[in-house]
Write a structure and sequence with these properties.
The protein is α+β, with helices and mostly antiparallel strands. The protein contains 9 helices and 5 strands.
Length: 246
């Protein structure tokens, strides 16, 4: 089997201390997860409001805006937990799962190797922005970025570190949400109205969703032509503010 470590990391300094690493990563990743959760929720909120304003069924049972928001929060939280538990259920916008597996470096006592798994690029980028954490991936292809001898050195290091075994069996894995993501998600599932309004999707996203909803609801000759319904959808859009969420 070809050596394949797309999420490889090199940990140095404080990041090379396994007990200190979670303290470095958790606040950074929770900030990113909070933003992503609000973005996912804001998209659902906007789509729900646009549908209801046009007389279409909402994404959740209609009622007072605050009640609908509460239902959408619960729906988004449930989908997020499902995505973290089971990669086969993952939806890109609610996939907040991120974990880092730590392995011994075969040559250096002052460094560790790591492998990151993250459903969202934003979470991966946040990990790489932490002091002492550098990209150190390896793929069985020529590197477009590194000299041949540097790429070969990475191959040697990873081959030695993995010892033809599964990294999950050789290292220690830390996960942002742990075994019980429901508990950690409680801090995310209490949305901030200002954050929601700031995270609302643009008119293009809203219009496309609304046109799709119209194509399903209206049995016309253009029922399956979402593009033909876009002008109607754009015309139906109205601003969404904090008052619409309470």
């Amino acid at each position: 089997m070809s050596l394949h470590v797309p999420g490889g990391l090199l940990l140095t300094g404080r990041a090379a201390h396994p007990l200190a690493l979670p303290a470095l990563l958790k606040p950074v990743l929770l900030d990113v997860a909070d933003r992503l959760f609000h973005e996912a929720l804001a998209t659902r909120v906007a789509h729900h409001i646009d549908r209801v304003r046009l007389g279409l069924p909402g994404l959740v049972e209609q009622g007072r805006p605050a009640s609908a928001l509460g239902a959408l929060v619960r729906q988004t939280a449930v989908e997020t937990v499902a995505a973290i538990h089971d990669e086969h259920l993952r939806s890109q916008d609610v996939d907040l799962g991120v974990s880092v597996t730590i392995l011994a470096h075969p040559d250096r006592d002052d460094a560790l190797l790591g492998i990151i798994h993250a459903g969202r690029r934003e979470l991966r980028d946040a990990v790489l922005a932490v002091d002492g954490i550098d990209e150190y991936s390896y793929l069985a292809v020529e590197s477009p970025r590194l000299a041949a001898h540097e790429w070969q050195e990475r191959a040697r290091v990873w081959s030695h570190a993995l010892r033809d075994g599964r990294y999950a069996d050789l290292g220690w894995t830390w996960s942002l949400f742990g075994r019980y993501p429901e508990q950690t998600l409680r801090c995310l599932a209490a949305p901030d109205t200002n954050k929601l309004v700031a995270a609302l999707p643009g008119e293009q996203d809203r219009a496309r969703h609304l046109a799709g909803a119209l194509s399903t609801a209206q049995p016309t000759k253009d029922a399956n032509d979402v593009a033909a319904l876009l002008p109607t959808a754009y015309a139906a859009l109205a601003p969404i503010g904090a008052d619409d969420l309470t």
